[in-house]
Amino acid sequence: KELLKLFAERQAAKGHSFGPDNDLQDQFEETFPYEETPGQIKAIMDVKKDMETDQPMDRLVCGDVGFGKTEVAMRAAFKAFTNQKQVAFISPITILADQHYKSFQKRMADFHVRIELLSRFKSKAQQKIILEKLAKGEVDIIIGTHRLLQTDVQFKNLGLLMIDEEQRFGVDQ
Length: 173
Known about the structure:
Elements: H1 2-12, H2 23-30, H3 38-51, H4 69-82, E1 86-90, H5 94-108, E2 115-118, H6 124-136, E3 141-144, E4 158-163
Parallel strand pairs: 1-3, 1-4, 2-3
Helix pairs in contact: 2-4, 3-4
């Protein structure tokens, strides 16, 4: 019952409608060092189409390891960045969160995207600084573990939430 009510509320809700791709998005996408697979292209186009409507997006991107899901996530995150929205990317494992953090940093280094990692790899003092910056809007993309679900995590302008390994998170989260 609760899930049906939740989905009905989501259908009636209006979300943020992201603008169409711009030159910066095109430049970012041109830096992808590989040839996209047909499945990647379809997933990227579907995600962008969802982002450009005012319906809250709820999309599952599924595929085996090495089939380019991270690139789909990066392009969606970059689209949110170019629309001045913050992005949260949640991963269930600290090592995987760190890997995503490094991949995002490397891929977006030339575009001045402010990316932070929030996990047990950061000291309490570092976490406090990151959370302050996040709340002020001084972080564009935050990548982390379940730590991002805690009540002290506040966003200035969250526009996109991505969850890696969704089976590791419950409906409540």
